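Lecture notes, unit on protein representations.

Consider one protein chain, 327 amino acids long.
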Amino acid sequence: MNITPAMKVLAVWLLGLLLVGAAFFATVSFLNGRLYSPEHQVDLYLGALRNGDGGAALGLLNASVPEGSNPTLLDGDALRRASAAVKDIEVGDAQDAGADRVEVPVTYTLDGAETTTVFPLERIDTEWGFFNVWRFEESVLPTVQVTAQHTVEAAVNGVDVGLPEGAAGLASFYPAAVTAQYDGKFFAAPEQRAVVTGAEAPPPLALTTESTPELTQAVDDELRAFLDGCAKQTVFQPTNCPFNYVTNERLAGDITWSIAEYPAVSITPADGDWSLAPLRGSARIDTQLRDFFSGAVRDVSETVPFEFEADLTVTEDDVTVTPVVRY
């Protein structure tokens, strides 16, 4: 068979078409494995978390925000801090889950522990009939509960958050680390930390407030002022005061009181408020007494122990100590 020039040209064209077709299908395969892959969707989502772009992350995850939840953790600095704790991220290969569904495992280190979160995605369409369109399966974001006593606010991932009636639920992306703490003038709560690794909510962050040195000092100052006021009274029984001196002898000189030992202040939380432990101290009386029978005058310098209680009221900016003296 003689091969004519026309046949040669046709063969070249056919070969070219085959090469173009092969290149086209190779390109489609490549793009479906990269830009149009479910793994790429997960990469985009994780990148949005790192950038603090909550709007993009929420759209990619195809998730809804729980009704009534606080959105502080869903954008900006709070989101960036939540994601910064996620280290050594590796996005695994998608695993077939049947019916145009896959599961993409993401392994990472969070608070020193290696953890894996599996993201389910579904193929919903194709673009131009060739490129797969993947979407995260619809979900609801988990909620991190933060509770606290004695305060209606806390710092969550470094951002001030209101705690109406001492509690709030904050919607969160995942994976993430969430911290909560409170630093006030008179009381503070050390940092509590939770990790969010999936759609299930982590254990609540319960802040336990403790008195600060400033509160102890403020209470001590008020108690000292109260007792110093009692010591200024020049009678055996200072009015509304926890100490007195009992004698059958007659007064023969001036009465001088002084506080020998001020009570140690111990403040503890109690029933959603603050409580002062019983207050113990001692006062000294200096005076002169005349014996009722002999008329002899003697100098008196004695220490008188005392004990009393006090009610304590603490607000964000004020401390009130109300002594309770029972005779």
